Amino acid sequence: MASSTVFAVTSRRMGMGSARSATNSVTATVTATVVTAIGSSVRCVSSATNVLSNSSNSAMHPNYSIDSIKPPKYWGKPEDAEEDPNYYHRKPVSSAHAIDLTSTPPKLSAKDSAAISPNGTVVHGRYGELKMASASGVPLEYLALLHPAAEAASALRQLNIDVGADVSDGEKKTGSGTLLIYGATQAAGLAALQLASSANIAVLGVVDGTHSSQHEFVDEIKNITLEPGTVLPEETACIKTLFRELVHGCTNGDAASNMTSYDASTFLRDFRENVLDYVKYYPESQLSSNPADYEFDGKEKDRQHHKANITAYLSQFDKGAPEIDPVIFKESFTVEQYAIFKNKFHRQTTAVISGDGENSMEKFSPADIVRDMALSPESIASELPAAGKEGGEYVPYEFTPLTNCLQNGVEVEVGGPVLGAVVNVTADLSVAVEAVAKGKTLREKAEALQFLTDGQKNAYAGFSSVVGAAKEAGKPVVVVGGTLPNFPSVEPSPEDVEEALSAMALSDNESQSRLNYFLQIYRASDYPVYADYAIHRAMEPLAGPRQIVVTK
Fold it and tell me: Which residues pair with 421 in a beta bridge?
């Protein structure tokens, strides 16, 4: 087949009678011969391709390697760019300072500061050289706030709260007690809040007036506290009744089953009064609809049929309540009868709503049922066989006069008893407490309050709510961040400093520490004017909730 095809093509070309045709004839003949020779061994084109594409086993030329072909120049490593002569290299930070607002004028604090010495150790302005094992995992900016953190640890130690060991998130559960804090967003107050929360202590904190308007920040602090603890603005704590209710809900749990005012006799008395008022207002002789509302308003020829028609129409409405003897009703309609009536009413309303015609009574008159039960009391064993027994049908939030079933089936966290109060001194609070303390009589104290600003009055009111709740529980009040007349302050010990460093340290396998601060850092090492600007910002009336730290 291959040979004939080639010769057929060759015959056409030879017919042209040219030298080119002769050349093609020779080529065709050779081709035909080659094709004929390999035709017996090559059966298809694919087979021939496979045979001819086999790789050679000969050795590779020694000059041929992976590096024989060089990559383009733009693939190579770029040359080092020339540095911009205006580029500024940041200076290394060697110290961190808090702002001392108690000095006149305010300045960078020398005591609340931390610096790196030439030999690599950390020296604190108040506590001297710190142990490298304790301070190695603490940021230098945090060390400027070491004193407030140590004060918080000391305050909790005085309140017999053990904060030495952290509890994992899976094991965090309150119940050991409740701590009250005023100034929960200040440096020492925030430290006390976090240390107490890490020890499974519920915290009810009050945010002072300088930070209470920072709603996002207040919500962030709420997320730090453990349930049922929370933080609330100072304006809420000024309402002493409301704050007392919050303390009660935090310490005892906010479950409805703990309601102390659950009294079945009160519910029964109210029900009796309502029934008698209903009977008096809707007597049996009066229909539920007033016939006077259906006066004749038609043609005169239809007037003679109006009375018969309106009587038949009004007969479909329910009649009023039958007369009930108040004395018999009070004596025979007990709590058990009230529970039976409620069960009947519940069954009827459920059948009507669900369209259950079998369990629905065609004529259901509550007043008639109550009258019949008052005259002939029914047995609770036949109507409510599971009443008062354990294991009965549980319906969340069901009202029954027999037992308290108001709980919702969800475990409610209980903070536990009040352990004490921690008060972080603020500028407004210091002025208010000192002014009131100077008064000897109640009148003098009241007059001193009248001359205070609104912010100072609110600070004193919120402070009084916290202190009053602690004293009501018979627990002490500890002051941090300053001093207040007639209240004890703390003096951190070396153990408290070590505890603060341990809480602020960040381990290798941890993403956060037990004690964290919200900082606003001004790097005066690069721009010295930032130090003056940081002092200016700290002196503002509403400087913001973040702690200002200056690095040099």
Answer: 180, 477
Residue 2 has pLDDT above 60, yes or no: no
Q: Judge whether 238 and 543 are in contact, CB under 8 Å.
A: no
Closest Cα partner for 110 from 126, 94, 121?
126
- CA dihedral (314, 315, 316, 320) in degrees, to 10, reads 90
Q: What secondary structure does DSSP assign to 118-158, as a single string?
A: TTS-EEETTTEEPPHHHHTTS-HHHHTTHHHHHHHHHHHHH
Omega before 228 within 30 of 0, i.e. cis: yes
The first and second tokens of residue 320, run together, are: 């009023």
Q: Are strands 128-129 and 519-523 parallel, antiparallel or unpaired?
A: unpaired
pLDDT band at 165 (very low <50, low <70, confident <90, very high): low
Q: Is 147 helix (H, G, I), strand (E, B) or coil?
A: helix
Cβ-based neighbours of 84, under 8 Å, separated by 6 or more: none
Q: What is the DSSP letter of 484?
A: B
Q: How far is CA 37 from CA 31, 40, 109, 209, 275, in A?
A: 10, 7, 104, 106, 121
Q: Return the closest-CA partner of residue 455 out of 481, 427, 476.
A: 427
d(CA 256, CA 211): 33
Q: Is the pLDDT of residue 460 over 60?
A: yes
Q: What are the φ/ψ torsions at residue 21 (nearest 5 degrees)? A: -70, -35
Q: In the block, which residue shows the tokens 């004890």? A: 488
Which residue reads 């000192």 in tokens?
Answer: 434
- Tens of pLDDT, residue by residue over 415-448, are 889 999 999 999 999 999 999 999 999 999 999 9
- Closest of 366, 407, 401 to residue 267, by C-alpha: 401
Q: Answer whether 208's CB lies under 8 Å from 459's CB.
A: yes
Residues paired with 96 in a beta bridge:
114, 551
Can you give the pLDDT at residue 142?
Answer: 92
Please name every residue paired with 479 in a beta bridge, in sequence order, or none if there are none: 423, 489
Nearest to 432 by CA among 399, 455, 411: 455
Whole-number Å distance between alpha carbons of 398 and 395: 5
Q: What are the pLDDT digits (tens) for 354-383?
A: 888 777 777 788 888 999 999 999 888 777
182 touches 209 (CB < 8 A): no
**Which residues neighbour 102 within 8 Å (Cβ) at sequence distance 6 or greater?**
none
Contact 530, 175 (CB under 8 A): no
Scored b (16 or more CB within 10 A) or e, 368-389 reads: ebbbebbeeeeebeeebeebee
